[in-house]
Amino acid sequence: MKAAKKEELFTEIKSYQHLKRKRQPKGSSRETETLKLLSKFEDKLQSVRVLGVSQYDDDDGDTKWMNHKMVTAESLITKVKDANVVDAETYAIFDPRNAMAKRRREEGIANAKQKNDKVG
């Protein structure tokens, strides 16, 4: 029994190694291959939506998830912040270990002391 499982494992590993060798190196040709795969997936989604799950037969037979639309509650959607826009809800993020941040902090402390000396 164990020998059969080992043999099955080795054949599966070989099949994945074959796919790894088949994959192209990084570059423009790999990008075109990825875009081809993406368009193939999009076509598959469209055909599932048009024909319905029962009429579309996949290798796995697991296409039910493709026919559903993602719907979220409006309260769960958050507004995306743009880092370049300064408004009332924006706050500065800095690394306290940074030398420039240390100088600013020291300048701020010195300015606060000068204001306190002028007032009091």
What does this structure look like?
This protein has 120 residues and is mainly α. Helix content is 55%, strand content 0%. It has three helices and no strands. It starts with a helix and ends with a helix. The mean pLDDT is 78.
Number of helices: 3
Strand content: under 5%
Alpha-carbon Rg, integer: 29 Å
Shape from CA axes?
elongated
Largest sheet: none
Note the run of SSEs as H and E.
HHH
Helix content: 55-70%
Structural class: mainly alpha
Return residue spans where pLDDT drops below 50 for at least 5 consecutive residues: none
Number of strands: 0
Mean pLDDT: 78
Short synopsis of the structure:
The protein has 120 residues and is an all-alpha fold. The protein has 3 helices and no strands.
Task: Give a quick set of tags describing it.
120 residues; mainly alpha; elongated
Q: Topology, please?
A:
Layout: H1 2-22, H2 28-51, H3 99-119
